[in-house]
Amino acid sequence: MKRLPDGDTIIVNIQAIPFVGASKERFFLVLFEEQQSKKKGRREIQLARSSSRANNHLKRELEATREYLQSIIEEQEAMNEELRGAVLVSLDLEEFRKTRPGA
C-alpha cells in the first residue's frame, strides 16, 4: 500500500516469479498490479445499475415489438384465409357457369 500526496492510497498486489536465465543464473520477475480503488468500484456499480436499467428497458421494448409483429402476422394470416376463400368461391362460381346448360 502506498499513500499518495493527496491522501489517497494505492493498493497493489505484488507477485515474485522465479526463473532461470540463459546463463543458469536465478532471477525473480516482480510484478506490481494495482487493485481497483473503492471510488472506481462505486462508479462501476453505478454503471452496472444504469446498464441494467437500460437493459431492462430494451427487453421491454423488444417484447412489445414481438407482440406487435405477432399481431400483424396473425392479421395477415386471417386476410390470406379470406382471400383463399374468395378465390375458391370465384373458381366454384366460374366452374358452375361452365357446367350450366345454355350458358
Can you offer a commentary on this structure?
This protein has 103 residues and is of the alpha+beta class. The protein has one domain (2-99). The protein contains one helix and four strands. Strands 1-2 form a two-stranded antiparallel sheet. The radius of gyration is 37 Å and the shape is elongated.
Distance between the first and last residues' Cα: 105 Å
The mean pLDDT is: 83
Report the total helices.
1
Structural class: alpha+beta
Shape: elongated
SSE ordering:
EEEEH
Largest sheet: 2 strands, antiparallel
User: Rg from C-alpha positions?
Assistant: 37 Å
Oligomeric category = single chain
Low-pLDDT sequence parts: none
The share of residues in helices is 55-70%
Count the beta strands: 4
Number of domains: 1
Across the major sheet, the strand order is: 1-2
Residues in β-strands, percent? 15-25%
Q: What are the key terms here?
A:
two-stranded antiparallel ribbon, single chain, alpha+beta, elongated, 103 residues
Architecture blueprint of SSEs:
Blueprint: E1 2-3, E2 9-10, E3 12-20, E4 26-34, H1 38-99
Short description:
By secondary structure, the protein is α+β, with helices and mostly antiparallel strands. The chain is 60% helix and 21% strand.
